[in-house]
What does this fold into?
Amino acid sequence: MNHATPRAEAHPPLEQLAVEPLICRDYEQRPAFYYERLRAAHGPVAPVDVLGVPIWLVIGYPQVLDILRDPRDIWSKRLENWRAYTEGRVPADWPLMPAMQADNSIFRDGAELSRLRGAWIEGLRPFQERGRPQARELEHAISQYADDLITVLGEGSGRAGTADLAAQYARPLPLMISNRLLGFTDGRAEDLLMDMWRLVDAGPDAAEAQARLLAAVRDLCARAKTDPGDDLPGHMAAAAPDLTVEELTRELFMVVALIGDYCGTLITGTVLEVIGGDSGARDSVSAGLIQEAVNRAALASPPMANLTLRFPRTDVRMGRYTIAAGDPVILSVAAAHGDPAFTGGQAPDSVYSSRAHVAFGAGPHACVARDLATTITTIAVGRLFERFSMLRLALPPDQLPWRSSPLMRSLRSLPVHYELAEYRTAPAAGGPAAPASPAEPRTEREAQQQEARLSLTRRFLRALRIG
It folds into this structure.
């Protein structure tokens, strides 16, 4: 990034600049066009209005990458470095404020960030390293959850039908995985699974659901501190015994959003890329290269389109503007992926294979669960295209409903027409998929376990349709 460019000009402070809203029809329906318009008018950084608060939106790929890597230690995630916040000029009811006040590792810097990330890295290691028994068991569970959802989705419709792959598959699946990772295996598991949905869905009862979930996660963390189990809280507590119960609770509460919301969005995004017209993603799936299709989807439509706020500790000149110390800055991953400096001059809506994307961040705050998120999405998408011989959009792509959010870009629904293929069993832990048809439980206990899972899945999806 050029911190001292001759193009920079004197201009009023951010609060006095003319800004255009981030949340608008073009941003939701035609984001590539929206970012190109900003780029033409402002260059690599633009002043925008985010739900009533003026913020710098960084849209240039080199600038986004430089800020993420932060080689000069300029950028902070701490609220006390936001000048307008410390001066009391940010509305108390600003919708993004609760997330900003979470006080977890996303909003930490320096030694505190390293300490908390270390706990995450060690805690996730058994579930992310392919050779570990926990990772093999988790992959098997992911396949089972996926198959159960697809089985229930197709019940009553015969071999062909219509479904909403967002509500009936892509969003519930990661929440079921979150439930398992957190260790919610007692009688409350079903209720907590519904609370995860209420929280991610941001409905009218989200606040009550958040309170119940927070209390449940706190109970798990307190137990993990004294009697660590073979789950994520247990492994994190064992890896970082100096973490307090409150610190561990704040960190683990992020699992619902980081796995539940991010992975659900990436699953729908990948399916849309495959069946919505991108030949590269479709060819990747046809060749069995599911992970490449996931990579292309993360590049074309990153789930977290814009990252949470950062604040420079000193004035930074960028393009034609000077970002003053303490100004709020949002990094637009989606815009950076469309920057000609990244695309090599291809059209903004062009999709090509590249592993230089920043959908999982970079630098000190890079996503520590990238491998897990990729595994979840790869298995989820792979099982879909194993179980269905045909998936076709039930609406034209430009009529699909998108969720309005300054951070996430996700579909509200993904309606499809489908035809079921001949069933293939989920792979046994550590083994390849068995091309059998259809899967029959080998023992009475397995039959009971399968029916219990299917019963829970039916109740979950039934509740979602009602809610």
Observations:
- The two ends are 47 Å apart (CA to CA).
- The chain is about 50% helix and 10% strand.
- Confidence is low (pLDDT under 50) at residues 1-6, 428-438.
